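1st attempt posting a full record on here, be nice pls
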Amino acid sequence: MLDKVLIINTGGTIGMVHTEEGNPLSPLRPAENWHEIAKEHPILNNFSTDYYQFTPLIDSSDMHPDTWRRIAEVISENYDLYRGFVVLHGTDTMAYTSSALSFMLKNLDKPVVLTGSQVPLQKPRSDALQNLVTAIQIAGNELYGARVVPEVCIFFRDTLLRGNRVRKMDATNYFGFSTPNYPTLGEAGGDLRIRRKRIQPVSDEKFYIDTNIEDRVVIIEIFPGLKPEYIKNIFEANPDIRGVVLKTYGNGNAPTNDEFIEVMEYINSKGIVVVNITQCTTGTVKMGLYEASARLLDAGVVSGLDLTPEAAITKLMYLLGKSRDVEEVKKLMQIDICGEQTLNHYDFEHKHEREDEECMFTFDIPEAIAGDDLVEAVIRIKGVSPMDKEVAGVNISIELEGDIPVENLKNFRSRKEVRKTRDSLGEDILLSFNHCTKKLVDNCKAIKVRLKADTRIDWGSITFSIYSEN
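the predicted structure (as tokens):
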């Protein structure tokens, strides 16, 4: 059967047929089998396929994590028998399913292509036939040989899209889906062109499924006038909630009033993971860039970078299903697993326990960073306070160096200075060390951070953040 594609029909518009055969005006119902779907389209019989249908078929609006598990299990049970898989699915929640499957299906080396349609297959102007035929071709690797697209993806209209980057953008247009923060994986015209450099690499490890997901999560979208007590009431009434996706403004900004921040701190104190994503269709969260997001950082909220809402909620479900360690889940939410986000965000935190003129600490560089392209490196110092209350200000120098031979230190050291007046001491100190950090990450196993002031101070909290791209 390795020359075949398995079509898995979960439901949706694409598999609807007329109640009365030959009567195009009769009501639509779900097809009972592949013959009913394909009989009016002989071209579908030209492809080597088998067919599996969920019983009962599921309306897209009724999609549930249990259904994601069932899809993953069907693929797992048949994985060694087929060249690839096509999942027929309703369009409304297809992006959630494709995102969830991308995390559940581990070490894929075969295509899993989801598709559907805006108009049923039996309608004259349906988009279903083109979507289905092309999805079968991609899943069967018929165009370019084996293992062309070893990941979960969606084919719709003329585009092949990464499954955990997809959003449904239009309820009626045939170009219904898009990946706002990632380019297409391929385009279909007279030819089907696969953009190989954008495809996830083939894994050499054995395929398996990981379906332990935690669905006690919620999405909260802020808006002007939202009363913080409404948010708090949700968690007081539902103490078993374990995760929250918080949709904020712009680059990740939220209200800065004390009442809102106190609610975020309350949620964090309950061991609930809060992930910040933007309400904007395109763009990324940049926490700490403005005070409006810096206070969220201090309240324990983590960045969702450029995750879509669908990928953010399913990734959070997946990670919470794997671990009860809140800090571990927070860390992994900011690191790419299977192409769902553009950047990786690593935080290294240090709390100096003495008031002194100098503060020094070292952190090891994770192996994953060394293989990435460094995009940005920022030191954030919060809560600097001089011991001498009479001083007019503080001069601070920050120096980075690596664990390399002394004779080479001059090539891998960077020093910056900043002046903080008494009036500005309450503000965060943010300094970029991009160029220096790139050298250190590429050549060292650890980075030393040395901070020095011209008077004894309480250093508060220090965070060194690195943003890198796979």
